[in-house]
Amino acid sequence: MRFLRGGGIAGFVIRRVLLGLLVMLLVSIIVFVSTQLLGDPARAILGRDATPDRLAALQKQLNLDSSKVGQYFHWLGGLLSGDLGTSLASSQPVTSVLGARIANSAVLVVLAAVISVPISIAIGSYAALRREKVFDTVSSNLMLVLAALPEFVVAVLLVILLSTNVFHLLPAISPVPPGTHAWDYPDELVMPVATLVIAVAPYVSRIMRASMIEVLESDYVEMARLKGLPERTVLIRHALPNAIGPVFQVIAINLAYLAGGVVVIESVFNYPGIGLALVDAVNNHDIPVVQALAMLIAAVYVVLNLLADVATILVTPRLRTRL
Amino acid sequence: GGGSAPAPSGGDTSAAGTPKKGGNFRLGVTGGGSKDMMDGQNIVTKPDQARLVTAFETLLEFDDNYQLQSTGLAESVEADSPTQYTIKLRDGITFQNGKPLTADDVIYSLQRIGTQANGLTGFAATATMDIKNLKKIDAKTVRLPLLSADSTIPQTLASYTFGMVPKGYQAYKGDPSTQIGTGPYKLKSFTPGQQSVHERYDGYWRDSYFDQVTITDFSDSTAQINALKGGNIDAMTDLPANQVNAIKSSGVEALISQTGGWIPICMAIDMAPFDDPKVRQAMRLIIDRQQILDQIGSGYGQIANDLYSPFDAGYNKDLPQREQDIEQAKSLLKSAGKEGLTVDLHTTNGASGMVELASVFASQAKQAGVNITVKNDPNYYGDAYLKLAFSVDFWGTRGYLNQVQQGSLPNSPYNETHWPPKSGEGSNFGDLYKQALAETDDAKRADIQHEMQKAEYDVGGYIIPYFNSLIDAHSSQVQGLKPSKGTLNLAGFGHGFRTIWFA
Amino acid sequence: MTTDQLPAGETETTGGGAAVTVRDLRISTTSGVEVVHDISFEIAPGEVLGVVGESGSGKTTVGLSLLGHARRGLKIAGGTILLGDRDIRAMSDADLRRLRGSLVSYVPQDPASSLNPALRIGIQLREVLEAHGSTDDKENAARIAEMMREVALPDDPAYLKRYPHQLSGGQQQRVGLAMAFANRPRLIVLDEPTTGLDVTTQSTVLTTVRELAQIHDVAALYVTHDLAVVAAVATRVAVMYAGRIVELGPADKLFESSGHPYTRRLVGAIPRLTGGRSLVGIPGHAPSPGKRPAGCAFGPRCRLHVPECDEKVPDMVPLGPDHSSRCIRAHEVVDFKQDDYGDPVALPEPQAEKPVLTIENVVGYYGSTEVLHSINLTLEQGEILAVVGESGSGKTTTARAISGLHHSWTGSIRLGEMELAKSARARSTDIRRQIQYIFQNPYGSLNPRKTIGESVGQPLSVFKVASGKKADAMVGEMLEQVSLSAAYARRYPDQCSGGERQRVAIARALIAKPSILICDEITSALDVSVQAAIVELLGELQRELGLSMVFVTHNLPLVRSIAQKVAVLADGSIVEYGETAKILANPQQEYTRHLISDTPSLEVATGEVASGAGVADGERPE
Amino acid sequence: MSQTESAPALAEGVDVPTPSVRSTALLARSLRLWRTRIGAFLTLILVVIALAGPLLAPHASDDFIAKPFSSAAASGTVFGTDYLGYDVLSRFLYGGRSILLTALVATVIGVVLGVVIGLVAAYARNALDDILMRLMDVIMAFPQIMLALVAVSLVGAKNSVIILAIALTTAPRVARVARGAAQPVVERDFIGATEAMGVSRVRILFGELLPNILGPMMVEATLRLTYSIAVIAALAFLGLAANPDAANWGIMIQKNQVALASEPWGALLPILAIALLTMGTGLIGDGIARTAAGIDRERGDE
Ligand SMILES: Nc1ncnc2c1ncn2[C@@H]1O[C@H](COP(=O)(O)OP(=O)(O)OP(=O)(O)O)[C@@H](O)[C@H]1O
Ligand SMILES: Nc1ncnc2c1ncn2[C@@H]1O[C@H](COP(=O)(O)OP(=O)(O)OP(=O)(O)O)[C@@H](O)[C@H]1O
Ligand SMILES: [Mg+2]
Ligand SMILES: [Mg+2]
Predict the structure, then answer these.
(1) In this structure, is residue C532 part of a structural domain?
(2) Which pTM value belongs to this model?
(3) CB contact under 8 A, C117 and A225
């Protein structure tokens, strides 16, 4: 892997982007091939109404007769030029079908990330500091319990607690009417975001705790203390930057997981995002939409990983200067 | 036999209070998705039904007892002869763009349905209509000639997919202003899979009360119930039967309508092992209808007798109610050499109850030594559909002959049982059907229907355990809802959202 | 930070002028097991007290206690630690914090892991000053520059912007020293600061320490397990064994006429540059905390052991001014002559003209970088060939190329007449059997999930020598041959000490009946006493079995005790090659001379050999 | 016991055998921690319920007891009836087996596959490593639930499909960890020692490398089991479960969750069971991880 050297941080980013694009290319092949297995989209669209004549008419309309390879390159070309095709189910361009939904899901994921990451880093670090003490025991076990609860359970329990049965504080659903923005309804976002936060925080805080403990045990933290540095300096300047490096990867994986995890949450809260769109598209065998969503989610994963790598490099001079 | 449906609740609210204008009626509907559409004469999903009836009306209408009434756009639909009808339009009806409804619109509407390439739901029902030769007599009168006698024409015209659209009408393609009907609400915005908003049309020819109707898609009934309980919607479709008691406590009411809808277990009469009438007979003796009604419908529904269309005037009430008889079923199977039969039963989540029916039936069949494996196949309505020996399907309320035309003739689009047989009892079914269509005398037609039903009862391929109820729920603020025997939820969505109002 | 500094002056002090006074210090684990017992010593300003002892004897623990610090799981259980006249144990946390880094500072063993990898060294230096009240940036910058010069590092801002990993090990260690001296402390604790550094760097660091201590009149506690290092740097030495100081006295006294059997044997275990004497290891090992006997902890390993030794822990017996030993027979011990340990021995003559291994024009690469330049060597039957050189000179690469573990080379390596393929896998079973490789790190070379028996028996099955009962018997025999018992076969590596593991590794190599043994620094991870025992064993085996060996090491004195021939590698080339005695006595190359002079040795310390030029002008560009 | 003169003290042996790192011993040692014990206890109970449940059930899994969602009192049962009128307790007792087995089989396949890939990649240290790991990246780019969703809708909610989908998505995640754990081991000298001996690659992978990453792999396996259970439950929640008439905790949650507010047991029992099971396996994993870390610390740096 000699060519994977040199060029400093910019060179690294360029190489990672190229690698990411390679992954995306492979992803696109897999997505295309596997969505071919979804079967005849015309029949899928018509469902019970698939009488031979209607079927024939639709197949012609969908232009399903050209070669598979040709279809793939046509699709790929479309992807690259921002044309995701036309939804089979709604006959609308995929971009317009998904545009608002992507924005909605992004709001959820970004909010969840912005809230859960600092919280879990704080909890994990503090637990590591108070290792084996009350806070650590309580938070570790709580995190374990939360991690054990599937997110739909968390969501359902939140609904029962906060909106239907116990208290009536928040709306039970978050429909975000079309033409409006998710952030116009802060009260509707509370529960979905809380569910996602609860889904992510345990893992991040656990890793943060472990990483922090390792750093606190390290020679250089002991050395910093032996230098007579104030504890604050030891923690903030010496421990934290080193502890956070390995956590970036975990955050990335978890946020990428969120992009898929929204499926369940959106279904509970009837939140019009990509999760519901995916379930719907899969049920309708709406191949262009499934393809677009698969590519989107994969892209999110690739980008998050890239960001995590870059972030890790940035906080790890050893890696940075080796580039 | 007879149903044991608990007394429907919520029906008496309409008596209370006088209608009031105003408000935004928020309806939550399951079963929608990105396939959602809007067309005055077509539906794909359940929310489409609700959307259709906001803006489009039919020439004739069914009342809450599923009886034909000329309360619709036509003053009358008369049979001039077995092969010709005359349609007379009501005066003073305008489309939502102010243009009056005329004979041209009716001709355009019927021809639109009758053109196969348009792919509309009602196409099959226009088979007997001489669509090309529809004739405008005057601005308000249309002559509908038939290719062959068809006494079901008035019923057909009353089906909700026979909505009247203005001449030149096209399905929704992104512009709400194209959705012009004669109905009480005019489309304001529509996002498939999510929501549509409908504003009151002030020039509507009858009364309507809401300022606005908002139809929201839900992915599952749990979210729907939560939303209703939480006050985020005013009404919802398809409350699971087992939730009727649970929701009562929370300011929410159930609307239970006994309909003629049915969930049959379909045996293809020409496929093994059901090509032997004894096996079919045995299966029908195995099923415990009351248990199915209790467990799947929570008791909301009516025991059926393997026959459909209970509200049809020609429904054969004289045939004895089949009861479970395991012993006889066993001996029938034995004499057919099919003891210990093992068979796959295909089903899908197409309508609520389909999967459960298969499960419950499978467990009942064990008593007779029949081993049924339930196959829940999400692609059921794909290549396999209509080619299966043993499957579950669903149907809504229809008149008998309409139903036969849809599902029980060799050329029917949805003939799951491959009925009728080529020989033996029932092989004259097709001829009888034609006779019945041509018969204008109600009593005589009923006799023919009885004969047809007898054949289906004896050797047909359907097991019809019960007629289900449509159970919907609404907040107690919503007034004017009464149970209805019709096909559509919430009493035809409050008759196109015009007979309901907020207290 | 100069307010409470003592006046510079005498180094020979035991009175109230001591920079630090430790009395009856006891340190135990939090669960109560005592780890360090009854430690008492003093260090005068400007004096360097060396602390030596085997791994686990408690050196680090004592060193850290001088900063009022105990590692996680340990606590200071009793005794007093006076810094000047201030009692460290009575101080509050805040006071301790102010104390650390200003009055007492610490230089850790492993600079690589003790410098924060995420912070530039400039920042790490500056914060010591800032934490103790010097907030003036200009002043600090000037002070940092001064410190850097003192430890002979560049003081330009660009250098200070470097991260720790951009420095060599020696430079890192000197940054650590600079940090420790930054606030002109009165006491500095150095915990094996040169372990892991090559000899040249080590000698530089030692010089720096000594000079700084003298110039600034700082008391220093220098912890090491290497007696030779102590000899080079310390004025007084405390020898620790099993948590106790067993002997305390002036350095020269300790090496010439030590008063404790343990010290004696330690000295005897150290290879001499002058050679001529076989090494004698100390069999067995020190008991760990909680398992220490009621009497003398060294008793079970002591040749002078008498029953009284086991009655109680012996008291310190004064032997002379400032010299005492914890042995009831201390006075007898003093009278022994050091030379009683280790017989003079002649290395066996190799059977010449029968080269078993011929290396011709071998050029080795990593990727496209050439790291070996045309190596030519021959190994005669029954000969031990030592390969020495600084770190990175290509010793390991050469050894791995011979054994087929490094594949990227050109040239020719022949076993007898047979040309060797590059990769071990491509070689015949018999060749693989004939060449056996022993790795440097005994902890890494045995699979921790396999029993000793499985590891030692593996060559038997791989080379299809034997199996089943027969193999088990052979394993047992082999284990005994390397001075372990057959019962060890059932143990796992983690149940063995480092020396035992290395014996197991040797057994695994020998069981295949090889004709050539390649040993890559097989003793450098071990304590000197263990090292001596291993070398002893190898010498025996070589004599008995007529083995030929390539012995890679950076320890020149060791070479003298074991090898007939030596090849000196520098930057991938052989700079000198010939008979050991000749080359060590009369090095032809500047490089070799440096190597010899930088090597700390008892001979220099005890005056047997005049100090070479290297110690004085040991500064080499990094 | 014979001993040579030069090693008198050796045979008396090592006074403190440092803690063993063998995998069986690791498990045993980890059981000294309370969290592992609690985890093992929870897991054991639920496994027993899942396996022996059918023997304890008061009713057959397909006996209709009363109308759907009847209360305990009304139906004369312990936890009332479910959405079809089956006895909740009996369904619960019958319903653990399949989800547990499905999750277990899927996890085992995924972990084995992942470990093999991870080991091969770590040992290869060349282009093969890069290729394998990029491939894993590609698979990882699809969230588990999404891949399962698509697979199930492609082929139907068969157990085999669910198992394959979960196994396939588990493998790359395990492979990453396995590779990470194996990389430092590959660098250790005992691997070189076996290479110099000419031991076959397969033997090195499974005889030498594998035993040394069992600790982290056990942690990973419990974690993956936890995820698998959650994914299967989530699939069921989305209405995609094999064999809809079988008693199955996942399906129970999906079908009965609508009554969580009124007759909660039908959904709550399986939710609790799954939560406790995942918590149990999580605790075990945590305990093993802590023990392994503890051992590594006690062993000191090598
Ligand atoms: N945190 C701890 N908890 C319990 N015992 C410990 C702890 N740290 C060290 N010990 C024990 O205390 C003893 C002394 O350890 P110490 O590190 O001081 O030895 P050392 O002489 O510095 O050894 P080395 O040369 O290996 O650095 C050892 O036996 C060790 O096992
Ligand atoms: N894996 C590697 N990749 C690239 N270069 C390497 C690698 N291993 C060693 N080198 C380089 O090859 C040269 C020789 O290294 P080698 O390990 O043989 O030295 P050595 O004499 O054994 O040193 P030491 O005493 O530190 O063990 C050095 O310059 C080193 O940096
Ligand atoms: Mg130490
Ligand atoms: Mg080396």
Answers:
(1) yes
(2) 0.80
(3) no
